[in-house]
Amino acid sequence: YKNPHYAAGRTTMVHLFEWKWDDIAAECERFLGPRGFGGIQISPPNENLIIWSRQRPWWERYQPISYRLVTRSGNEAQFTNMVRRCNTAGVRIYVDAIINHMTGTWNENTGTGGSTANFGQWSYPAVPYGRNDFNFPHCVISANDYRCCPDRVRNCELSGLKDLNQGTAYVRTQLVNYMNRLISLGVAGFRIDAAKHMWPGDLRVIYDRLNNLNTAHGFPSGARPYIYQEVIDLGGEAISRNEYTPLAAVTEFKYGMELSRAFQRNNQLRWLHNWGVGWGLLASNDALNFIDNHDNQRGHGAGGNILTYKQAKQYKGAIAFMLAHPHGWPQLMSSFAFTNTEAGPPMDNSGNIISPSINSDQSCGNGWVCEHRWRQIFSMVAFRNRVGNTALTNWWDNGGNQIAFCRGNQGFVAFNNEIWNLSQTLQTCLPAGNYCDVISGTKSGNNCTGKRITVGSDGRASIVLGANDYDMVLAIHAGPESRL
Length: 484
Ligand code: LM2
Ligand code: CA
Hints:
Strands 1-2-3-4-5-6-7-8 form an 8-stranded parallel beta barrel, surrounded by 4 helices. Strands 11-12-13-20 form a 4-stranded antiparallel β-sheet, covered by helices on one side. Strands 9-10 form a two-stranded antiparallel sheet. The longest helix is centred in the middle third of the chain and has 16 residues, at 169-184. The protein is an alpha/beta fold and 484 residues long. The chain has helices at 21-32, 76-88, 145-148, 150-155, 169-184, 200-208, 253-263, 312-324, 375-387; strands spanning 13-16, 39-42, 92-97, 189-192, 226-229, 249-252, 287-289, 329-334, 357-358, 364-365, 392-397, 402-407, 411-416, 422-427, 433-436, 443-444, 447-448, 452-455, 460-465, 473-477. Helix content is 20%, strand content 18%. The radius of gyration is 23 Å and the shape is globular. It is built from 9 helices and 20 strands. 50% of the residues are buried. The structure holds ligand LM2 and calcium ion (CA). The site of calcium ion (CA) has 5 residues, from loops.
């Protein structure tokens, strides 16, 4: 369950938060496929409770009312079409699977597909679920439970959300049927929402009953779904992520927390020389790494002080480090702009999501940030694809916040997070020749729209990163996007 089954040469997925299926299909064909992205985490595709009383917040999608594939992102036909078109474009789809719970208790009780529920009776007829399918006696998780009481974290309600009992054969079968239906439609795997709130033994049974990936969508025969379990473990809790790594991959929340600290200059970049398990991170193959996710970018979930698109220069620095560094499987965030942390995606008065528009410079409009379309970010996806599994070598630092390193003889990257300039002759490990920096610009014919770097026969090059440059990163590699 730890292999994302990306198409050959791809390495990186992006969370297209709250995007519509038709827009994702188009994005696979016009941008993500051609640019070498490996996959997409989509928002939950199953029917959720409509919450008009809170102006349709983004988090209504974390309140399932059935497993019908009807949401603000689209219906089952649109979902099916998206998965097929993205797989054809070489881009895999990973589903955010909400299997710990159903809805909370609200006055409204209609779902995005028209299903209803009777919360007081724990009744969800569109599944159907009833009282016996939920944990009993009823209880709600309190802050202290995370320190004392694993059983309460697993068997009580998270934020008042009706807590399914994955220990019963019936509930397991509903969840397995839902996930297998998605596998048959061609998805490559799942994010397991709130995995900490479910028993590892129950999850193992569920995972083992999942079908192999659909060979009609280009997966090798016998391929298991990629599973990354959302477990927030920053230490000090009764439940450890080590209970989940024997099952499948785990979200690495320490990754973005520590890199956010460093790139905000609350720690020196030079300490990153042993970034990886030396920092207490998960083993590389167990780790789904990211800087921000949909929760911590708005102060929900773990952390606080996580870099986001709002601190763009530091954020692009941290993202570039993640994509240049060999540890783990990286995931990018692609956001809609927000100030109110509850607000849902751009929508019209009827609650329909407004599609991102694409500007002439390839950036997005209509309220969508589309970090994945920022040159500094998509160029580093190509960098990572190019350097592959090569080793990190030739670490250099200035004893503070200037660092550089090579990836085999395929890539070189430098960072300047000081308030003074970096100007050094450094070992790049690349073959002699001319290269375009893929951060400050792109290659255009035989020229660079940004910085041009000349690597000598000894592999060394003069590297300049001004403190006031637009970006704090410089990256060159042996691929066609960079080599002249
Ligand atoms: C997750 N991971 O474990 C998601 O990443 C996270 O976004 C989800 O919380 C959470 N688990 C449940 O799937 C979000 C949001 C919560 C929100 C829930 C449910 O962060 O604030 O809770 O979704 O929509 C909301 C209200 C809360 C209320 C609850 C139940 O904010 O006040 O609790 O609904 O109605 C009474
Ligand atoms: Ca639970």
